[in-house]
Amino acid sequence: MAPADPALGGPVLARLEVRNLATIRELALDFGEGLSVFTGETGAGKSIIVDALGLLLGSRANTDLIRTGENDLLVTGFWNEAELEGRAGDESSASRRLAVQGRGVARLDGEVVSVRELQEWAQTRLTIHWQHSAVGLLGPANQRALLDRGLPEQTAAYTHAYREWQEARARLERLRTGERERARQLDLLTFQSREIAEVAPLPGEEEPLQADLNRLANLETIAQSAAGALTLISDGEENALGFLGEAVRALNASARYDEVSAALQQELRVALDSLQAVSGELRAVAEDGAADPEELARVEGRLGALGKLRTKYGPTLADVLEFQAGVEGELAALTRDEQDAGTLDADVDALFAELGRVGAKLDTARRGRATPLAAELLAVIRELGMPHARLEFRLSALPEPALYGPSDVTIQFTANPGEDLAPLSDVASGGELSRVMLAISTVLGADTPAVVFDEVDAGIGGGAALAVAEQLHRLARSRQVMVVTHLAQIAARADHHFKVEKAVEEGRTVSRVRPLSPDERLEEIARMLGGNTSEAALGHARELMAGQDVKPSNRLVKPSNRLKV
């Protein structure tokens, strides 16, 4: 198998800070590239680190995780976003706080976000394979996704063809089963459209119509008022026009000698002309004292028709017009459905034929990818302590095409010689599943820059343990890999070794996690091999560590510009 790309592919986890999580009171860990391992005595709480990272991935909040006697817990992770692009200094953070009372709080770069937003953000940077999470591989959708990972064009083409066929088929089904309902809808919509169209309302026309109605209904009062004003202006024995005329004449003598008097006399003449004009208009109003019954009926009828439309389709005329537009759109769609019903059968058949063609191409591509992918996976699986294992991807035609393809995809597997292949979900043990998952991560690559394995080595030892260690080491060439392990073989391949320890302080259990020095690391691997640090165990540990292909790297991913959350 070709070696992995030595360059990591994205942001790396630089630091983890934990407070009041289970038996951890306060913890700060700096992480490095490559393979990091966490070891410790049974019951030391090695998986607490995985629990902390799980909270950043949006795992379900459980207040039982809060340290006894404390009000809350806080987990914060810091990522160096540009560490691997030569632009050190770009850093992001994610945190999650759980409280005994009240809701928890999630943050990204100090800003409050929802847990779902935190989860979506973290899932692009970190993957956790929990101790029993390999069971997710048992789902047919996940097995199919492994095969389809290298076939994006074929799967996208099939999905598009399937949706087009489904939409056309659903539309035809609606036409066939809803003829009576469609006819009822057509009648109703046609009536509503015609009712509004016959009135043809205009936005804003009600106000001037209401003003006309008020005028027509009060013409007698208007005429009487005009007649009274006319008496005062011109028709009375003493009236304004008479007085104004006398005033003009009174200024005749002075206007000859005084410019001011002449100017004033001219203004009075203008006023006299204006008053005479007003008098004429008032006379017309006074003589028009009887309302035109037809005009009154027309205005009342128009307002009534508009009011009826507003009551049914309003509350305003603008709403009525908007309703009319919607009705016209529905009518057009229903009419189009009726017109299309005759040709839709042929369209559905044509789309189904196209789906069959695209589906056949997808199945051909899947079969073409299945054999070499199975061979690659099997080569790794056999190295992981299952030398007689067999594996293949099997395609089984479905009675009807599904959204994901015309066939089911299942992984067929057996770990034992002489046994027939059977679905992975039926025959694989927990340990076998974990090793298959490790093989998949190694061959296909993890989906995120950082990958965490929680006791992926459960139930194995001997040569299989060395093989698992080698696969983790290979994966760590292209990913930041963290492993909770009890196997010395894996610990010996680590670039960074952390030990989880428990102690009792002031009557309380406290867990600590600390990086080991080279001498401490040798003693820990010896303990893991034989349960003690005897000369024989230390010698065995030296031999195991000396068998590495590369020396451990002590370079940590130093976080920059720490963000306080």
Automatic annotation (TrEMBL):
Residues 13-502 form the RecF/RecN/SMC N-terminal domain. It comes from the Bacteria. Keywords: ATP-binding, DNA damage, DNA repair, Nucleotide-binding. InterPro entries: DNA_recomb/repair_RecN, P-loop_NTPase, RecF/RecN/SMC_N. The keyword Nucleotide-binding applies. May be involved in recombinational repair of damaged DNA. Belongs to the RecN family. This is DNA repair protein RecN. It comes from Deinococcus arenicola. The gene is recN.
